[in-house]
Write a structure and sequence with these properties.
By secondary structure, this protein is of the alpha/beta class. It has helices at residues 15-27, 51-57, 83-90, 150-162, 181-190, 220-231, 249-255, 280-289, and strands at 4-8, 33-37, 62-66, 71-75, 96-100, 109-113, 129-134, 144-146, 169-175, 197-201, 212-215, 236-240, 262-265, 272-276, 301-304. A 7-stranded mixed β-sheet has the order 11-10-9-12-14-13-15, with helices on both faces. It folds into 2 domains: 4-162, P-loop containing nucleotide triphosphate hydrolases (Rossmann fold, 3-Layer(aba) Sandwich), CATH 3.40.50; 169-304, Spore Coat Polysaccharide Biosynthesis Protein SpsA, Chain A, CATH 3.90.550.
C-alpha cells in the first residue's frame, strides 16, 4: 500500500493547518501527496438543485462531473469503506497519503498536541503513534516534531517514508541510426555495472553479441523512451541518447533516486534521464494527440542540481 500516515488529535488542535503546511513543503519537493479526511458526521457535499444532486436524487448510483482541471465523484455507499480500500481505489498513484483522523486504523500516526487546546476526556488516543507534533515538551522516547514548523514535519516524513533510495533500473542506450551502434556498445560495456542493459534502435539493425535489442515502435526520442519502458523488466529506465554515451556511473547514480516520474540533470535534458513507468500514460496521450513531444510537460520532472565529482 502507498505509505500512509495519520494525523490524530482532538478538534481545535490545529491538525488541518499542520497538514496544509506539510502538503506545501512536500509538494515543493516533487512529492505527489494524497489526502484523506475522516468525517464523523453525515457528509453533504452536493448541494440541492445542482445537476449532480438531481441525478443522484433520481436514483443514480454514482454521478461524475468533469471540468477542464477538476473531477468530482458523488457516489452512494452501501457500507463504510475500509481505509485501505479508499486508498487503493482513489489514491494509489500518490507517493504518500496523509489522513486527518482515522486514529483507530492502526496505521502509523502522528499525534498532534497544542498546549492551549482543551482535550475531550473521552477522546481515545491512537494505538500506533510513531511521532508527536507538539508546541510543548512531551515525555516520550518517540520523536517530537515542532507543531508550528510544518517544514520540519515534512522533512521528517520525507526522510522516514520517501528518502531517495537507489531504484532498480534498466540502462537503455538509444541508437537512432546504425552509425551509433559501436558507440553505444562501448557505453554498454563500460556501464554494465548498472545491471540490465538494452539498446533501443530501428528495425533491421544487428547488435554485437551479448547486447539485448529493443526495436523502437516509432521514431524520435519519445518513441525510444516508450519502447524502453515497455521492454524493460524493471519499473525504471536509465535512458542515454548518443550525445550522452560518455556519461559515467556517477552520473547515473545521481539519477537513480527520488519519487518523481523523471529525474534529469539541471538544465533538464530528455536524452539523459531516469524515466518511470508512470510516464507511459503521458507518452501514449501525446502520441494520440498528434504532438509526440508534448508529454514532457505532463510528467513530474525532478532536477539533480549537483552531480558527484567526476560525473559527466
Amino acid at each position: 500500500m502507498v505509505p500512509t500516515v495519520c494525523f490524530a488529535a482532538p478538534s481545535g488542535t490545529g491538525k488541518t493547518t499542520l497538514i496544509e503546511g506539510v502538503i506545501r513543503h512536500l509538494t515543493a519537493r516533487q512529492v505527489r501527496v494524497g489526502v484523506l479526511k475522516h468525517d464523523a458526521h453525515r457528509l453533504e457535499l452536493d448541494r440541492p438543485g445542482k445537476d449532480t444532486w438531481r441525478f443522484r436524487s433520481a436514483g443514480a448510483w454514482r454521478a461524475v462531473i468533469a471540468g477542464e482541471s477538476q473531477l468530482a465523484v458523488f457516489s452512494a455507499m452501501e457500507a463504510p469503506c475500509a481505509l485501505g480500500s479508499l486508498i487503493d481505489g482513489y489514491l494509489q498513484d500518490a507517493d504518500i497519503v496523509l489522513t486527518e483522523g482515522f486514529r483507530k486504523s492502526g496505521l502509523p500516526t502522528i499525534r498532534v498536541v497544542r498546549a492551549a487546546a482543551s482535550v475531550d476526556p473521552g477522546w481515545a488516543a491512537p494505538p500506533n503513534v510513531i511521532a508527536w507534533a507538539a508546541d510543548r515538551p512531551i515525555d516520550t522516547r518517540l520523536p517530537v516534531l515542532p507543531l508550528n514548523h510544518p517544514e520540519a514535519v515534512a522533512d521528517w516524513l520525507f526522510e522516514r517514508f520517501l528518502a531517495p533510495k537507489p531504484v532498480e533500473a534498466t540502462l537503455a542506450l538509444w541508437a537512432p541510426e546504425p552509425r551509433h551502434i559501436a558507440r553505444m556498445a562501448e557505453a554498454a560495456s563500460r556501464l554494465s555495472a548498472v545491471g540490465r542493459v538494452m539498446v533501443v534502435t530501428q528495425p533491421g539493425v544487428t547488435l554485437p553479441r551479448g547486447l539485448r535489442l529493443a526495436t523502437a515502435v516509432r521514431p524520435g526520442l519519445a518513441g525510444a523512451v516508450a519502447t524502453a519502458l515497455v521492454a524493460a523488466d524493471t519499473p525504471d529506465v536509465l535512458f542515454l541518447s548518443p550525445d550522452h554515451a560518455s556519461a559515467t556511473l556517477a552520473t547515473l547514480a545521481a539519477l537513480r533516486a527520488g519519487p518523481a516520474d523523471v529525474v534529469t540533470l539541471d538544465p533538464p535534458d530528455p536524452g539523459l534521464a531516469r524515466y518511470s513507468h508512470r510516464c507511459l500514460p503521458a507518452l501514449q496521450s501525446a502520441r494520440h494527440s498528434g504532438e509526440p513531444d508534448a508529454w514532457w510537460g505532463a510528467v513530474r520532472v525532478a532536477r539533480v542540481s549537483t552531480v558527484p565529482a567526476g560525473a559527466a
